C-alpha cells in the first residue's frame, strides 16, 4: 500500500472518547480490541437487548454460509466491505478453506480495524486490506490494493455484513450496489445482512425500535430497514432462495437458533446474483 494511504483515506483520527461500531462489534464477539467508551456503550446496549452478542455470532455464521454458497457457484474473489476487526475465524479463513488460491480483500476505514487488519494479513499472499470508506465505491474500486487484487473480468462476491445501515434511503442503497457491481460481470454475488424493523405495530417492531433508539444515541446515522425496503433496493438483482429472511429462519429446520425474545429476527440476510 502506498505510503500515506491510510491517513488520506480513513477520515477522523483515533478518538478515545468516541465509540467505534467496529470495536463494539468486536466486543460482541468476545474480542479485546476496545476502549472504555466502547465498553460503556456495550453495557448500555446489553440492558436493552441482552442477546446482542448472539446476534453478532449468528451474523458471522451466516456470512460463512454465504461464502460457501458463492464458492460453490465458482466465485474465487471476495470483497468484504466494512470488515471490522479480526475475529477468531475470519472471512479469509472460510475462503481459503474452499480454495487456497482464492482472493479476499478487506475494506474498512476504522483506525483500529486498519491497524489490526494490516498486521494480521502481513503473511498472507492472497488476502489483502484496503483502507477506504465503503460508502464511497469509487474510492474503494480505485484503491491500488483493490485494483491489483481483483480481476474485473471475473465475477466477484461482495459482502456487506451489517454495514449498510448508515445509508439514508433506498435509492442510495440501490445506487451503491450498482456502483460496486458495474465493473464486474454477470454471475457476481452480493451477500447482505441488515438490521430490520418491521414497523408494523407488532411487539417485534417495538423491540426493534427500542434497540434502534439506543444505537442512535451513539451512532445517529444508523437506521433499521423493513424487508420491503431491502427488497426494493435489490430489484435489479436475482434474489436467491430462501429470499430475504431473518437469520432465525434462514437455516433449515433443526439448524435454527431461535432466541426467547425473537432478537435473531432483527437481522435480515439475503444472497443475490447479478444477472
From TrEMBL:
Name the UniProt record assigns to this protein: SAM-dependent methyltransferase
One Pfam match: Methyltransf_19
Organism: Kribbella yunnanensis
A GO BP entry: methylation
Top-level taxonomic group: Bacteria
Keyword list, A-Z: Methyltransferase, Transferase
Alphabetized InterPro entries for the sequence: SAM-dependent_MTases_sf, SAM_dep_MeTrfase_SAV2177_type
One Gene Ontology MF term: methyltransferase activity
